[in-house]
Design goal:
This protein is α+β, with helices and mostly antiparallel strands and 422 residues long. It has 13 helices and 18 strands. An eight-stranded mixed β-sheet has the order 1-11-12-13-16-10-9-4. Strands 5-7-6 form a three-stranded antiparallel β-sheet. The protein has a three-stranded mixed β-sheet with strand order 8-14-15, with no helix packed on it.
Length: 422
């Protein structure tokens, strides 16, 4: 959530940065400012009535001590109390309306974010490795079906489209990848492993900005008013909601494996064959909580940690800098890591490494006590380390051989228990 003081003190800056996302956002700032003026005026009047009521109450005490009639003053006190009740309700109503609108306003893109309208305008920052030459490359679905690794038909019988059952070598490879990723990030990169709940309260999704903006994308358990997690970012970042973290404990670095659940409402991409877009998929998520001064360096390190996965597995990839028209709702800066998938003849996003500034921390009231003794909002970051379904796709398609077998990268051998899939 944006700082109302920033909007109040520098509305032109806020409007100009939001306009880089969409021109339609700028009128919203005028609406917020108008509500802010009304709310503050109501609060000022409330304070004035309260001060006058307190003054009259003291006078009434003097009148009573002297045995004098104080009924006229008491009537004034009653009138001030009535006005206070009305103004308090008005102030609360305006404050709620202002907060509701603020919750729907995206983050300001950082100054370094390239200006653009869509993914077509995202510059490629770097690439790693070489594209493998695989004549007549098969896609992962063909390969997986040949080895009986996935069963979409029976999963559809159970849950509908957008789900799959991992079978045999498929289930074993998915389990191997989870262990490999967690061991890498906790053992080499210094993250603390977390296994969080998979059902969360709505406030957790508000805190990380999935709500109210993306309500239609969430799976909700109405009976208990809980949501299935769309990503481990939600429960893990919210571990410290409403807390004041000690400066000495920053940065906090968490790694968590969870299944992720997304309705993908209105998404035309759900029809893509295979694992490219699913309602349920596995992911290892990396989350960081730090100070504003260290956030840029932490984003660089976070991106490097996610890239290391693909480097160790020997998979060609590129890193893309998301432009103002493509960056996520809550993000101030995002680097996408896209792995090459020969069977798709395209790159697949396997990680979005994002810096949110204090946008999420304000929503969840996550602060730290600075060296000056003052409480300040933390900065939060996260990135997939990585999304397993698409990593699974890349491994199958890059490892395919002419005889139909699938070679696995050497670092996965001890986790999978074999060097290949036959």
């Amino acid at each position: 959530m944006l700082d109302i003081r920033l909007i109040r003190e520098n509305p032109d800056l806020v409007k100009s940065r939001l306009a880089l996302r969409s021109e339609t956002l700028t009128p919203i700032i005028d609406e917020i400012l108008s509500l802010d003026v009304e709310r503050r005026a109501a609060e000022t009047q409330l304070q004035q009535h309260q001060a006058e009521r307190n003054r009259l109450s003291k006078e009434i005490g003097g009148y009573r001590k002297r045995g004098e009639d104080s009924s006229a003053l008491e009537a004034q006190v009653k009138e001030h109390s009535t006005q206070m009740t009305t103004l308090a309700a008005l102030s609360e109503e305006l404050g709620t309306k202002q907060r509701d609108i603020l919750l729907g306003v995206p983050n300001l893109p950082a100054e370094a974010v390239p200006v653009g309208k869509s993914a077509e305008d995202n510059p490629v920052l770097r690439t790693w490795g070489e594209k493998p030459v695989i004549p007549n490359a098969k896609d992962h679905l063909t390969l997986a079906q040949a080895h009986k690794m996935l069963d979409f038909e029976r999963a559809a019988k159970l849950s509908g489209a957008g789900f799959t059952c991992y079978l045999g070598a498929g289930a074993r490879l998915e389990r191997a990848l989870i262990s490999f990723l967690l061991d890498l990030h906790t053992g080499q990169h210094g993250y603390l492993e977390v296994s969080p709940p998979l059902l969360v309260k709505s406030q957790a999704l508000v805190g990380t900005a999935q709500l109210p903006k993306f309500e239609e994308q969430q799976y909700r358990v109405d009976r208990d008013d809980l949501y299935l997690v769309p990503t481990a970012e939600v429960p893990v970042t919210n571990l410290h909601a409403e807390e004041i973290v000690a400066l000495k404990d920053l940065p906090i670095k968490y790694a968590a494996y969870t299944p992720c659940f997304r309705r993908e409402a209105g998404s035309a991409g759900l029809g893509t064959r295979g694992l490219i877009r699913m309602h349920q998929f596995d992911k290892v998520e990396l989350v960081k909580i730090c100070t504003p001064e260290t956030a840029e360096a932490e984003l660089t390190a976070l991106t490097a940690d996610a890239e290391k996965v693909l480097q160790i597995l020997g998979l060609h990839y590129r890193v893309v800098d998301l432009c103002t028209g493509d960056i996520g709702f809550g993000s101030a800066r995002t680097f996408d890591i896209e792995v090459w998938a020969p069977g798709q003849n395209d790159y697949l996003e396997v990680s979005s490494c994002s810096h949110f500034g204090d946008f999420q921390a304000r929503r969840m009231n996550l602060r730290y006590k600075g060296a000056d003794g003052k409480n300040q909002f933390c900065h939060t970051l996260n990135g997939s380390g990585t999304a397993l379904a698409r990593l699974f796709v890349a491994l199958l398609e890059n490892g395919q051989r002419e005889d139909g077998s699938i070679a696995l990268p050497e670092p996965l051998h001890p986790y999978f228990g074999a060097t290949e899939i036959r």
